[in-house]
Write a structure and sequence with these properties.
Rossmann fold, alpha/beta, 7-stranded parallel sheet, 2 domains, globular, 5-stranded mixed sheet, Dihydrodipicolinate Reductase, domain 2
Length: about 290
């Protein structure tokens, strides 16, 4: 039986945009009808052509010329560029999924608030950062068991090879956006985020170490709540796993999360990029299920 698919556009043909394209090609609910960027030497454009996906080097202008080509727009450019794109896409009435740390739209972690946002047909949702996607559900689990938690710190360590020009240009925005998301979704007043680009060879997997100051923690209850969050995330990010914790030492609870990428376009060590493209597809499919039903 033929299943109607929701047409989508990807703006940004770099690593993130291309990995996103691979995931969309596998989706039973989404169809990429425009893959647009500016780089004429883009490997992503060449791959999209091989897949038979319509492409353009005119970025968002290609969408302005043919606004009816899609219902969902993924912005995989940069924080600064999305701030320019956002009002244009709003005027076009598109459901926008922002993969940059622009802080323009409503922050979204699929496992936390995805169901609530997916019903808004002209929403601009912001997927925070890869560190935000990986750590916010764990931080929320901690805050649920210990709502009086006053301080939480995230140290996200990723392979230097998996950090492209866009990531490097947005490190300040990355940390600020990650901190903001954890604070707003958990109510923890003091949050600190640190991103480390590790040049090790062979490249390391993404690791997220979360520290929370908690006096007399209930480790059994914490572990149960954290494992529950991990189980849900693994439904759309299979390489997401709890590798250590929760453990407590001198009033500090630590949890370590590792993310292995699926290996679509990006190498498996790029779990930091894979988790945000997987979250983007998860949200687009939630939207599709709502609007195709």
């Amino acid at each position: 039986m033929h299943i109607k698919k929701i047409p989508v556009c990807i703006i940004g043909t770099g690593n993130i945009g291309t990995d996103l394209l691979y995931k969309i090609q596998r989706s039973e609910l989404l169809e990429c009808t425009l893959f647009a960027g500016r780089n004429h030497d883009s490997k992503g454009i060449a791959l999209a052509k091989e897949m038979g996906v319509p492409v353009s080097f005119d970025s968002i202008n290609a969408l302005l010329e043919n606004p009816n080509c899609c219902e969902i727009v993924f912005d995989a450019t940069s924080a600064a560029v999305h701030k320019i794109h956002a009002p244009i896409l709003k005027k076009l009435g598109k459901f926008v999924i922002d993969l940059t740390p622009s802080r323009v739209g409503e922050m979204c972690i699929p496992v936390v608030n995805g169901d609530d946002i997916a019903t808004d047909v002209d929403a601009n949702i912001n997927l925070v950062t890869c560190g935000g996607q990986a750590s916010t559900p764990i931080a929320k689990a901690i805050a649920k068991i210990h709502p009086d938690t006053q301080y939480l710190e995230l140290i996200a360590s990723v392979s230097s090879k998996s950090a492209g020009p866009g990531t490097r240009a947005n490190i300040d925005e990355y940390n600020q956006t990650t901190q903001r998301a954890i604070r707003e979704f958990t109510g923890i007043p003091k949050v600190k985020s640190i991103l480390i680009l590790n040049p090790a060879e062979p490249p390391i997997l993404m690791h997220n170490t979360i520290y929370a100051k908690i006096q007399h923690p209930d480790l059994d209850a914490l572990k149960k709540e954290i494992e529950s969050a991990v189980d849900v995330i693994q439904q759309y990010v299979p390489g997401y796993r709890l590798v250590a914790g929760p453990v407590e030492m001198e009033g500090v609870v630590s949890v370590i999360i590792e993310v292995t990428g699926k290996g679509d376009f990006l190498p498996t060590y790029s779990g930091n990029l894979d988790i945000i493209t997987a979250a983007a597809v998860q949200m687009a499919e939630k939207y599709a299920r709502t609007n195709l039903s």
